[in-house]
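Extended Data, panel c. Modelled sequence:
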Amino acid sequence: MKKILKAIILTFILVQSAFAQKYNIELVSKNLELNFITTPKRGIEYCKIIYYVEKDLETISAYKNNTIIWQTNVVSVCGKPKVGKPKIRYIRLNKDKLHVVIGKHNYAEIDIINGKTEFTGAD
């Protein structure tokens, strides 16, 4: 049973990393805050880790040494917003959390260590 579980987890990791998109280093910023309405940048570099919003504007990936650490589809986890398009509009890094705005009024937090995503509310 343990061997089957290990094989499933390993397969999941390999498939996930095989389909992961590479980030564009020119779109990575040293700023800890990005508003996608005002900037073409799509990633934040902090402590040699890049937190990058993928082309679909729903998924955030974390890369270290050009290798994906984790990936999360924020819209899938948090649901489609009632107001605005179902895409990431803003990200801000605070110590151990990545704060995300989806649509116009939906908020999420992502643990930067493991990618665990939580819906934190809407206004």
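Residues 2-19 form the longest helix (18 residues). This feature is highlighted in the accompanying rendering.
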